[in-house]
Design brief:
By secondary structure, this protein is an all-alpha fold. It has one domain. The chain has six helices and no strands. The longest helix has 36 residues. It is elongated. Keywords: Membrane, Transmembrane, Transmembrane helix.
Length: 163
């Protein structure tokens, strides 16, 4: 029973991430998205040593994700100590928010940090697009969807608000 609810919750979470992600490609958010891609591409284009920029960006992303992951873990532990109740959606958010996105960093690192990498305008643009899209997915899965999921749980289980 718990396994089925976990699967359903994970499916719901992924659908919410995808639907929020698609919203960034509608007006007015697409303007911000395209501007972000253009700005990062311009920065990458004018830098001589692009590797340090990529290392800095990925380090910031990892720090941001770890910070929110640890913060959520502490909040879950405190709530469990106070109430002696575990909430399935909090554990699902903890799993989906952290692990999935960290796995992709290893793949990116190998592509971005090759010492013999030749940077041309196409590769700069592709890297800029990938980084901005990755940042969007991370932001959505860390900030937007957990709040939507929390509101859904509050509607269904009013005792969650009392905890």
């Amino acid at each position: 029973m718990v396994e089925q609810k976990t699967k359903a919750l994970n499916k719901y979470y992924r659908k919410q991430v995808w639907s929020c992600f698609k919203e960034f490609f509608k007006l007015p958010k697409i303007v911000i998205t395209l501007f972000s891609i253009w700005a990062l591409n311009t920065i990458v284009h004018f830098l001589n040593d692009k590797t340090y920029l990529m290392i800095s960006i990925i380090t910031i992303i990892i720090f941001f994700q770890f910070y929110h992951l640890i913060r959520l873990k502490i909040r879950i532990k405190r709530r469990f100590k106070r109430t002696d109740k575990k909430w399935l959606f909090e554990n699902s958010i903890l799993q989906l928010r952290g692990i999935i996105h960290f796995l992709n960093i290893g793949v990116w690192g190998q592509v971005l940090f090759k010492p013999d990498r030749v940077w041309n305008s196409t590769s700069e643009l592709m890297v800029s697009i990938c980084i901005i899209l990755y940042l969007l997915i991370s932001y959505i899965s860390i900030k937007i969807v957990p709040e939507k999921l929390k509101m859904k749980v509050l509607k269904e289980y009013s005792e969650y608000n009392l905890l």
